[in-house]
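[job 0412] stage=complex_fold ligand=WT7 status=START
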Amino acid sequence: MTASAPQTVPGFPPTPEFAAQANGTAELYDRADSDRLEFWAEQARRLDWDTDFGQVLDWSDAPFAKWFVGGKLNVAVNCVDRHVTAGKGDRVAIHWVGEPGDSRDITYAQLKDEVSKAANYFTAIGLTAGDRVAIYMPMVPEAIISMLACARLGLTHSVVFAGFSAGALRSRVDDAAAKLVITTDGQYRRGQPAPLKAAVDEALGTGADAAASVEKVLVVRRTNHDPNLPWVDGRDVWWDDTVAEQSPTHQAEAFDAEHPLFLLYTSGTTGKPKGIVHTSGGYLTQASYTFHYVFDHKEGRDVFWCGADIGWVTGHSYLVYGPLSNGATEVIYEGTPNSPDEHRHFNIIERYGVTIYYIAPTLIRTFMKWGRDIPDAHDLTSIRLLGSVGEPINPEAWKWYRDVIGGGTAPIVDTWWQTETGAIMISPLPGVTAAKPGSAMRPLPGISAQIVDDNGRPVTHGEQGYLVLDQPWPAMLRGIWGDEERYRETYWSRFADQGWYFAGDGARYDDDGALWVLGRVDDVMNVSGHRISTAEVESALVGHSGVAEAAVIGASDPTTGQGIVAFVILREGVENTGDTLIAELRQQVSVEISPIAKPREINVVPELPKTRSGKIMRRLLKDVAEGRELGDTSTLVDPSVFEAIRAKKA
Ligand code: WT7
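[job 0412] stage=complex_fold status=DONE, emitting structure tokens
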């Protein structure tokens, strides 16, 4: 739990001007309440269907949902071709900005050609609907083109964040048995080219260790940093020599509404990431609906910018499927916010006249640290709506965001959702809701949530409970790839009697009934809006030859929301070399998982606090890490371990 909910604070009502032009209305909630399924059918009809659907929801095999039964559509055609057919081919879909300062504007007509070429190549190498494709790329246009080309052919993409290590890539490639891996030669990191294909080579291995499923590695030239890029003949091909040579015409086929669109791996409470499965019709319906209403998007007028990476679900739903299905014009930026300097985001907002800006609270807090002089040096008056995602936003950051970036008037949508929910679930509706700083306010029209206690009884206002989703929703995950049991166990066993989805978050209502999300209640940390499991980091740490045991917790952090704090016990006879050892351990985590999972702090301790059943009491370690009085220690085998831990920390 990382935020507290005041019992009641005033909200910021929309200005009459904003309300008058807003896509959302109070009536939308009424319509959804009076007939939820009919409401979703209406939203689905915002898309083009080749074959109309019959039943809106088949929940007879719960928790496995089928939405828009019998309907057929092509997701890529909905995101690209239909805008061209409607005469909007010259509209810019993507203003792409590279980290070194290069840029490309891609119209819908051009996007259609590029996606068609990639689809033709994927077909030429024998991929057919249902095959899996791994995408391990920085934020270059070809990453999005690849995702859409997969969608066009019914191939299931699995995007792996390019900041993940070779090991993390390999386990995802193997789990999904991907036939094709798409990557780049390198990627820019704070102005410098860094290798990326090298990680693919390492991940896929050779000879007896080679990833068995992979037939081809398709490489986009991005950094051109290595004239002797290692190459596996027969396996590796350049995008320029293959995709670029294809015909820009491609006849798309329609797929079933439940055809799998993508897998996206996310951390759970165990060390093994889960391949979250999303399908086509329901996912696109909700991604598209939420983009239109939550961001109040006006076609042909707005310029949208979501700062997420395509490696996360936010990048899938609000860089690709949500905006493009609505014919939006969006900005995609390849690099970090301080490259070449801290003005980068604000320069981009000015240059393209960004009207809707969607980022994570961590970045807002980073901007606050850099100081308001930086944004104040720019004309940000184009901005009319701001969004926040990924972690609870503290009221101070909310107010700063609105005042400094939003000119004191822009509504803020604090959007709660998850990889598993596929699209936004709980958020203010701009123009309708008087949003309170720090509250996600209320479920969107068509979405139903509750806050309940251990026994599934609704909590009273002010009381903390578990956030559950008590009705299925169109973009809900359809399972965990290859692990039906884990799907039931993780999400549906906690409130099995009621048949509710357990989100893993704590929440409460304030006296006005506004909903405040308080953070994870399981062993999942949230660092800069990135979800990392304590178990994954622990397993990376014990992978070091010197470590006997490790316990990891997320301690509150003023910038990143939570910071990773580790406690390790060394093996008998291993010498504690101090900073050298700590550096090695941090490196170990970086290599095993990703630099984003590196602990902020590692404490070498003589013992870990355990219950009689051998469970590590993370709650108490968190008290230590956050410098609090210890909570209840009565179930510990040996409460005195804390003296030793504290002594080591001091
Ligand atoms: C977890 C999901 C949503 C896409 C990015 C993260 C936390 C997300 C909020 C918010 C408070 C939030 C929750 C959730 N979270 N948005 N607006 N307020 N907490 O997706 O990696 O699947 O993580 O992020 O704890 O369970 P994810």
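The mean pLDDT is 95.
[job 0412] exit 0
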